[in-house]
């Protein structure tokens, strides 16, 4: 009776599993990658590809990984422009006071995190209004530079005129008087120059720099101390702040290793008619398309390969006499380029033929209509 029951149970049982050898069922050490047996430098190199959030998650795995993540070699970037969940991709956003305090707490926590890890920075990105006496962003950046290793810092991206997130009441209670604006601008410039002074001593190897610039004599003398600069982008600080031709010429002559230069200069109306000279033995790329009213009378750039320039309408109508008086001071951009840029290969993203110097305008006519301010190429005088 029992035998019949067992037999029927065997018959009615589901399909039998395939027999697997005991040796293959054993959980051996070869079943996973021996990450912990790699040299420490290799482990750090692998972890360096992770973002900051993932690095912190790895620190929770085990004690050995926690020690690895604390290494200063993994913290090479200080990016205050990264807001995470704070309205990704939006600029200049007004937020509630509560959300602003939450973001500010994140900024201070992030700074403490970099200091406690003894970060060795290669890149610093930040956007803070350094003239803000309440939040003291200038002191925060100074504290960071004093307590991390930044001797090897090579990339600086700094907007010292603007804080990414601003509370609502900051705009409501702010004064719109020109006197108050002037005081605010002076505070910003003073704090910027103090920070730039600290950078010249702490980070002399910066090779790439992107920032707003006030073009004062003090700031110019500080900027030209960065002799390793190869890529420089300067944005305008204040629309009423002009740039003298001698200042601009001194900038390019004082940076012997400069390869790429981007300028956003807004020439004030009182300086309308002034032309500029650039001289550099190393400059290969020049972009002045963000500028307004910037006209060149002479270029001495033997290594220049690409130039971007664009006319920007101002919305001001000039009478014929004034127009001719101003235009008579400006040479055609074609002649300036032919005489001062022997290696030029591209203009406004257009590839030039090797024979462009031999023809008068030729293929460059359409391009010059968009970038030259001379009489031949400026039909509309609605500035």
Automatic annotation (TrEMBL):
Xref: InterPro entries: F-box-like_dom_sf, F-box_dom, FBXO4, LRR_dom_sf
Single GO biological process annotation from the record: SCF-dependent proteasomal ubiquitin-dependent protein catabolic process
Highest taxon listed in the record's lineage: Eukaryota
Entry's Gene Ontology cellular component terms: SCF ubiquitin ligase complex
Domain F-box: 32-78
PROSITE patterns xref list: FBOX
PANTHER family: F-BOX ONLY PROTEIN 4, SI:DKEY-12E7.1
The name this protein goes by in its record: F-box only protein 4
Native organism: Dissostichus eleginoides
